[in-house]
């Protein structure tokens, strides 16, 4: 069976009822919710679901509809940059699916939600029409205010939808990409300057590790700071290499690593042996393995 993964990031990580309603909107024959993660400081939730292409497409559209009805960016606060109530919707090819299929899905969903909700949509990564929009960070630079300003320029009009943000839902980036690992390292410190310095040193854009995006943020609900990262090619820059780089830089500031956390799912080959010891991965994150979740859902499907 051909499988597609979808990993929407939604700008809500505090209201349990809204988070649950968005998760419930995904459920349908042919699609399985594999994981969901929420963080109140980021005020963001990440949902991971997979299934046949048409079922995943429909689930993504339902998720957008539910989120737009429940989230108002005019009152939203959180440390994570965002441009929309549904901030980003990536489609990822799994077994039996090629990237072209995910590009088609991205464009289908972008066209549908822009028509239905008057939502401006920007295509990114493999679905991007221009190199300027390929990198998600370039689309999201400056948050919604920065994007709204750029949208006044002809070259930054959205791929679908109106040329101004939706009043409450902002804009959305929809794309197709390879597997990405969202990986955070929490430091035993409350000094935001330390996390920001480490992120600046290790990220690709400043000459650090390749295929790594990083930012330093404050986790107010825990009184600590975090280096929040995306590994866009884990085969070239491993989780172990990232952990060691953060540990080395943190040590220079007299700070130790408290723990690391996985957001969403990771491929089995991305983890080293004994990740709890080697990467200080939280106990609750040790089962966030993509293949294991898929296998579990396939077994459940066969017994239904």
Task: Name some characteristics of this structure.
304 residues; alpha+beta; Alpha-Beta Plaits; seven-stranded mixed β-sheet; 9 helices; 23% strand
Describe this structure in words.
The protein has 304 residues and is of the alpha+beta class. It has 2 domains: 4-176, Formiminotransferase, N-terminal subdomain (Formiminotransferase-cyclodeaminase, Chain B, domain 1, 2-Layer Sandwich); 181-292, Formiminotransferase, C-terminal subdomain (Alpha-Beta Plaits). The chain contains 9 helices and 11 strands. It has helices at 16-26, 53-70, 99-117, 136-140, 143-150, 192-202, 239-252, 275-278, 290-303, and strands at residues 4-6, 9-10, 31-39, 44-51, 86-93, 121-125, 172-176, 181-187, 212-219, 224-231, 257-263. Strands 1, 2, 3, 4, 5, 6 and 7 form a 7-stranded mixed sheet that branches. The protein has a 4-stranded antiparallel sheet with strand order 9-10-8-11. Strand 3 and strand 4 (44-51) form a beta hairpin. Helix 1 packs antiparallel against helix 2 and helix 6 packs across helix 7. The model has no long low-confidence stretch (mean pLDDT 96).
Instruction: Specify Rg, calculated over alpha carbons.
Output: 19 Å
Number of strands: 11
The chain-level mean pLDDT equals 96
Termini separation comes to 18 Å
Q: Indicate the overall shape.
A: globular
Series of H and E elements: EEHEEHEHEHHEEHEEHEHH
The poorly predicted ranges are none
CATH level-4 homologous superfamily of the largest domain: Formiminotransferase, N-terminal subdomain
How much helicity do the residues have? Answer: 25-40%
CATH architecture of the largest domain: 2-Layer Sandwich
